[in-house]
Write a structure and sequence with these properties.
Structural class: mainly alpha
CATH topology: Methane Monooxygenase Hydroxylase, Chain G, domain 1
CATH class: Mainly Alpha
Number of domains: 1
Strand content: under 5%
Order of helices and strands: HHH
CATH superfamily: Ribosomal protein S20
Number of helices: 3
Shape: elongated
Length: 88
């Protein structure tokens, strides 16, 4: 553990950020899982709603820096392609 006051503060901040990032990544995974289960159940309406919610969660994670913006774009693109594949 750090001994200097500033180092103690930095350590405390890093723990808070790590917890926030972990929660955000978990939120992203749950949103993606929701979309995938709706698509596999062939429920187009629920899949479309879940996709909209997932896009919002993923974009927020990207804007906060939890997920790289290219990773977020790839996730959204692949989910959209998966949802649009139901109709085909």
């Amino acid at each position: 553990m750090a001994n200097h006051k500033s180092a103690i503060k930095r350590h405390k901040q890093s723990l808070e950020r790590a917890a926030r990032n972990r929660a955000m990544r978990s939120r992203v995974k749950n949103a993606v899982k929701e979309v995938r289960t709706a698509v596999l159940a062939k429920d187009t309406e629920r899949a479309a709603q879940a996709l909209t919610a997932a896009k919002s969660v993923i974009d927020k994670a990207a804007s906060k820096g939890t997920v790289h913006w290219k990773n977020a774009a790839r996730k959204v693109s692949r989910l959209s392609k998966f949802v649009n594949g139901i109709a085909a």
